[in-house]
Fold each of these.
Amino acid sequence: MSASHPAPTQASPMNVIGRPHPRVDGALKVTGAARYAGDHYLPGMLYAVPVGATIAKGSITAIDAGVAEQMPGVRAILRRGSFPPLGRAELDMSSADTTAILDEFRPPFDDDVVRYYGQYVALAVADSFEQAKAAADAVRVTYAAETPDVDPALVAEAMTVKSERGDAEAGFASAAVTIDQRYAMAPETHNPIETHATVAVWEGDALTLHETTQGVINHRNVVAKMLGVPAERVRVISRFLGSGFGNKLWPWTHSPLAAAAARTLGRPVKLVLSRAMTFRNVGHRPRIEQRIRLGATAEGKLTSVQHDYVNATSILDSYEENCGEATPHMYSTPNLRVTAGIARRNIGTPTSMRGPGAVPGLYALESGMDELAVALGMDPVELRLRNEPAIDEGLGVPFSSRHFQECLRVGTERFGWSRRDPRVGAMTRDGLTLGWGVAACSWIAERFASNAAVDLREDGTARVACAIQDIGTGTYTVMAQMVAERLGLPTDRIEVALGDTRLPAGPVSGGSMATASLVAPIHEAVAKAGAALIAAACAAKDGPFSGSRPEELDFVEGKITAKTGNRQAMGFDTVLKALGMPAISGSGSGTGTFMAPGKPTVSKHSFGAHFVEVTWQPETARLRVARTVSVIDAGRILNPLAARNQIEGSVVMGVGMALFEETHYDARNGAPVNASLADYVVATHADAPAMDVHFLEYPDTSLNALGARGVGEIGLAGTAAAITNAVYHATGVRVRELPLKLEHLMT
Ligand code: MOS
């Protein structure tokens, strides 16, 4: 490639990387101009409302749709046998183009067996939503019901060793000080403001889905397999999402159902899930039980770490919550064992929820570390500082960039930790008891394979395109920043196209990997567009660079520049006009690191520390998370405003995890009983603490040229533990079951 890559430099006047840039799509969202999936209205469109099973275990004996079918506007009551059986998607994780992943493998209407409450048993389709809803309610389904198993007490079918070194039992047995505790977490349900929605329209044998998905390419591939059509005949569009938190990562059964209904009836079909269906049919973080055993010398040096965990999963799908992800690399210990198991319940299939695995895992590990510090009579920050590993002892390779000790040190200063009186209940302010707690966080730093294309246009604007999504985290903005920085332009001259399978294949927006995945393909696409422009300019009969040779020219900050001589420089817009070309394009691609075959040569993770102050008023049993300090080591921060938003949102979500969020399943029929935003309590603005977020900003170029890791999930890791650790400091009550309830504290 003849074009050079200018080093990212803070000095460049047009440099927008590292600046607190507001969302480029913000105005569209706040004015209501952004069209979400459910906002699409097509000529002749019908509305579909699923009929969900009202048992969680058993079988369907009859579906009586006689009344429903006669109701006004009703087009069909679809059920098993109404259309050819849907196919089964197989797992394929080979590239951004062909990935096909989902959690619930059973296609809808596959058999008459019911395995969870709300499982779709029929689909009412009518001219209006109200008619479809009324018809769905009028369908009479009879069942041979059995008693479902939604027991929260989990016993694993079998335990698998996930990581092991040394002799964990012996290290524990010979330790001077030990703790052995169990920690449980209630099932949490993702509640993005925008519920799942599909608008399916067929033109001949070509399908378009207006979707709300964190992965248009994967969604296309899965739905194409289920419908038995080539992936090239399916287009998935998802330009705006009202978030997802993981429950829009992989397709759920309503989407192929809507597409099958549209194909059967020959009309576009819209299917929008209700909030109640969100609790039944599109995943959740399952109930998790964990056991932590730690052994240490009297000086607080870990001699053994054991972490065992079991998560609930559905009857047919073996979802594993990878709670031990961070445990092997978090602290130095010669002896360690991590084991995992699953337990099947008559509940819908679980899925990834913000920080799957490490978030619940670090709740347990960081609670255990706090209990060990108490047992040792040692400051919990000091205990963590004493167990800093030199390398990732789980993988046996160096860290790409780890500054966890600095996170702790900076956090103690910003929080005022040195003023902490370690005695329980000893600190007070304005008649309130204060509790101060700390916990560590860690999250993977990886990237997915991705492609991107960049067009330079004669009007001095540019367009960047990738079939990636913006789930509300700022992907539109960071893509604009990346191109603006390379071209020396302000972001308002950059058009961003995403969320459409017709664009160059991109990855799912998940695992905090979107930004890191985009750097290489976007940089290469800009460079290729520049190289193509140089080639065209050199080849032109007459023009500013005719007669030059490509190797004499560079493409720097959007200008063709002579390497020597007068160093003549000319912007791409001027060159394009001189050449009579409306635009010139370049494309780029980047490889993935996530789950890549072979042993990694470095351990890539982000780190951080949360410090929490709770206030406790025993007279009124009033607990508040008052303030937090989060120090995050996530590489170079490309947009401090958007990044801080991510950590703040995570900390508020952590307040919900610690104190509020819990899905209750009725033991009689397996129904999630608090399936509404009135009854499922999430943290609100009123629950948000005063938050101080600080980034260390050590660029990690092992992942990409900009040195950026991800920030979408790490802020949730450790937060709940820091809160319950603070509650112990205030009250002396160690709560080991989330969410913490006031009755736990009224001793
Ligand atoms: Mo996130 S759970 O990877 O959407």
Note: The chain has a mean pLDDT of 96.
Amino acid sequence: MQKKLFSELGLSPELLKAVAKVGFEEASPIQSAAIPVIMSGSDTVGQSQTGSGKTAAFAIPAIERVDGDLRATQVLILCPTRELAVQVAEEVAKLAMFKRGVRELPIYGGASYERQFRGLHAGAQIVIGTPGRIMDHLDRGTLKLDQIRMVILDEADRMLDMGFVDDIKKILSMAPPERQTIFFSATVPAPIAQLIKSFTKSPVTVKIQSETLTVPLIEQSYYEVDRRAKVEVLCRLIDLYDISYGIIFCATKMMVDELVDHLVARGYSADKLHGDITQNMRERVMGKFRKRGFEFLVATDVAARGLDVDDIEVVFNYDLPHDGEDYVHRIGRTGRAGRTGRAITFVAGREIYKLQNIQRFTQSRIRREKVPSLEEVEEKRANLFFDSLKETLEKGDFKRHDVIIDRLLEAGHSPTDIASALIHLLGDDKAARPAQVIPEELPQRESRYAGSSEPRNYPKYEPRSGDRDAAPSRPRAARADGDAPRPASTERRFADPSPKSHEAGMARLAFNIGRDQNIQPGDIVGVIAGVAKLPKESIGAIHLQPQQTLVDVAEDQAKAVIKKLNGIKFKGNKLAVSFAV
Ligand code: ADP
Ligand code: MG
């Protein structure tokens, strides 16, 4: 199915004007195919991938169908989550802006009933909501379906997953039989097919194959990465591709928590969504992420359901998704509406078989990539730094510091020395960073894939410690609102030993006491073993420094140690314990 111009789809002048105002230049394939079918009055099943523009595909005909002079609910749109309901309502509002008298109303759990009653009473013609809350209003009699002309199910497959099937059946049975019924779904599993059969009349199916969709615009690749090297590889890729806005999917809540800690410790701004996050918090996190208040959203599939964000540069599958459908849902969040995006998947060990299933399902190629070496990342970053410095010089877009430079010149320093010293202070002095190697612990895996059977030693790479802020080429939206300060000059202070444990399964903690406080290694072991109750075997290397001590402890106990020891009094000091950065 080819794309069409909106002007070829038989829309009213008001809708054409709105579409132009919203900025859509041409209709996407699903819109080109579905809009005429829905406008003809047929029951319709629309199937296409996430990010292909399904909302407008049903919202436009829905708006056209509404009689602005009739103050009664005429279109009902069911969505799986409140976030989606709100987003669909926003899109409807934009598209209906020139249609006189047409009102939309989102209805969802958690929002004020009062406002919803008022909106319904005022006769909002297009009601958008989750099946649960819609049922609620039907039971109370505050929502009436007698004037309903069209019922739309958006993301029907997701609603099914979320257990809304009975509510959906009830709602559809209550709507007038002569109404038009529209299903939209990324996939049509058997129970949805059953619903379609029971609740539509000779439906027309409009299906857009993935090949013609957004998928080709998403560059999909995978990396074979041992579990324990994932954080490291993730950080390298973020830096290599200079990514500052992405979603990272993990399999479990615990993984999400851990990864956020790791990322923050390494100087990235990250926040999380998972099942244990309260609804309020969830909304705050999502709102902030939409405004680019931080760089990386780490989430589980369920928690990220319905999250709709534009301009995501990358979706990382830090852990493999369950199946092809989840994969499509996840990666559909990047490369939206014609922009290119990137989907990067980590595959550990035998998971390669799962990936093959996913490829079969999506019928798209996921390219195998080699984990970039430390040198490649460094070189890329050096180039970025060079480019931005050059650009700044060429534009003359900087504040002058003639006085201080004159003083240095007068003191006999050459301009090259002064500039080099400045770059060094910024922390971009590559020579100062020894390439370290994570030793033996990366296990040798068997793989049937060429070139991957040799043992992998990932040279240790510490991104973004000192030089993070020195690379002005990365617009750091995250800091615009004074967010999470990055550890500034950690690299110089802790150049050796490094903030990362060199032992498998160990995490490195920093204690705020050291030699200057007359602390001995035995004291540290004592407090960890005595107070945090860790067996001695769970305590590894201890590096005493003047003002702090770096201590390796078993990774799975590290958080408990921090929790137990942080803030307690020890040898006359108030302890501050954190992951070393
Ligand atoms: P889906 O529901 O299929 O996942 P959406 O309806 O959420 O996709 O659309 C994804 C993004 O594409 C949204 O940001 C939307 O504004 C944009 N979009 C939709 N249709 C067009 C179009 N014809 N041209 C440009 N952008 C579009
Ligand atoms: Mg959608």
Note: The two ends are 53 Å apart (CA to CA).
Amino acid sequence: MALIETSELMPGVRQFLFNRPDKLNALSSPLMAELDAAIDAAAADPAVRVLVLRGAGGKAFVAGADIAEYQGDKRAAFIAYQMNSRRIFDKLERLPKPVICAIDGFALGGGFEIALCCDIILCAEAAQLGLPEGRLGLSPGGGGTQRLVRAVGKYAASDLMLAGWRMSGRRAYELGVVAEVTDDLDNAIAKRARACLKIAPLAQAEMKRLIREGSEAPIETAKSYEQEVLFRLYSTSDGQEGIDAFLEKRDPQFKGE
Ligand code: COA
């Protein structure tokens, strides 16, 4: 298996490892198919509240698409791979549950594109992130050019793409892409996952959608989306439970309804 599930971190949290360490976890077609299925399984299972993605081997999260599959001007296969990547990355971005990505080494090309589809990115000091496709005479194709420029602005995005610069986890933190830089990723993942489990699932799903869709809409429209969401959440049983629990000084029991 090119994508393996680790033993459960804690109830409600599912962790997957990209597992082609001899190829720096490059995204072969079989690996992409396994990622596709893992996202579907996480979406379908209400017991899964948080998804965690990591790389095996300690040297890379994912070093991009498997360049060996590109060789030989196989245009139809190349286009199919790119369309498929776009579909899978979009699905990951739209998963209505938080996705944590932990980067311990290289997150390049498609690896960085995957990270940009996640919600909370954690990095080790040694992490190196970038979109070096230009060095191959190519450009990113899984949404990376657009997600990156929206995340960091024109100048930082240009540095990574036009100069092929690889940025450190610390630089990504300064740019607001990374939530935490630490060499204790296990602990950082556990802390963030525990915190995510305390947020009501419907509120989480709605806020995730607002972050994604609201930032693409004119601000007055986005503020209207925001209020529609809040009004809907207020009338859910979890909304009422959260308020009651606070006032009764107890932990809320959210049911996702
Ligand atoms: N696709 C296929 N194989 C890859 C790969 C990729 N994206 N990235 C790394 N590998 C393979 C290497 O070919 C090598 O395989 P080998 O041992 O059979 O020769 C192995 O992984 C280790 O990589 P290597 O290049 O020897 O490690 P390094 O530490 O010297 O360099 C990188 C690490 C990440 C800088 C370098 O591997 C690299 O530039 N990779 C490609 C990154 C990229 O362009 N990604 C976008 C792809 S569209």
Note: The chain has a mean pLDDT of 97.
